[in-house]
């Protein structure tokens, strides 16, 4: 019988006291510098601002390894329009620095002097508060040089005086414009496009055709197009403006692209009068007996279109292009965050490689890393932390690698490199991370509690033996049952085969059957009039076809790599453009809930034809 020697009460007290002292010393040595590095502060994007203007407040935590109970204050003087998180990690000078930001988009409701209050949080176990920031709000219309809304008299502009031409009146006071940040760019270089409606008339409008942006990867810059007008001055005149669409585009291939027009159907409510245009309509006692005006309402329907705009996409320079260049365009930094120490043999190790900066972040692929011998990693998990509301697109993209810690020793992960093209300086650069060293120590042996060593005093047999015996008996019983059952089933199967006719081999499914299966859920969503599910199912069918047909890794399933792959496989350019157009239409439709059955049916027909075409090409190749 196993005898367990238990320490006496005095020995336990001494050990406990020593553990407390050692733990305290460890916390003072290791945690003291970390706490000293923690910063918690508030930043306001601009001041002063204009009434009804949006602005950003950032609550930033630097060097916080543990952030809990983050409390955002109440903004009694402002309206909250948006709230999101943003975090980055960097490694340098022997330690990792994490930065976390809580970003709130506020709207100033009135003029005056206010204070943006600070936030509070428990950071690394300590209650902390950020600073308050004073802000001034002045009167006026945001971003419009203090234009007075009274400058736009829609009722007066909508009067049709004798001799006025309706067509000329509309051309001067109601139109659509498309604005681009540039008309010439490189492949992968961000481009901002804004479709906007301008009006000085009494009008009701509805978007009937949204522009298709074929040949580009699209990032929406607006969450919802709510139809709230703003005031803008153009060529010396003030207009009410409404956003039709505002996006960032990332060209996928070189060439010349004409942006499709946006179409808006409008009904202008004119009032026809026989009063001359230069006569002021000021009521007075002297003109009560004057000739009446005889006003008459006239509704005029018109369809507005944006003028065609051509974007020239240039190929990236081949001179001095690095051999491992993978399409990154912008300005970037590269950091590698090591796993926390200590690392024991067999531990699950996670290493984060983060690309931060501005550019085509959403299209970036993992940087090439030369892993040391003994380290076997799978495809990384990808996390994007992107601020889509700014141009060019900025934020970070993190690739997290997981693997089992190898045998004991030091393992050096050399510097990671990611070449990119900087369109501002028009040259190739390389983002470089620091190298890191992993110290792998022997695994920690499991400490067995005293209670686990206590055995049955009566029999001298460990109780776990009984449990193990029961499990073994259950397994044996299951095996015996399966053997008997299988024998009976086999006899019945042999008897059935003796009288049954030989099975007929079914022909493999053709492209039409495969496409029908892929779009089955999309058709059900269409019948149930569920646009979000419909468009997601169409997207899924396209990506699944590309993935299964050409064995594409999940990390490569994006427009940039897919269009390059299709081009390399000899897929016609027209088919590639249709592929991008269907994906773009799905992306756009998910942002706009007012989709008609006719548009969904047309897209389904287009997707069916495209999928059949891709499958036929894959079979021929």
Automatic annotation (TrEMBL):
InterPro entries: BatD. Keywords: Membrane, Transmembrane, Transmembrane helix. The keyword Transmembrane applies. It holds the Pfam family BatD. The chain crosses the membrane at residues 465-486. It comes from the Bacteria. This is Protein BatD.
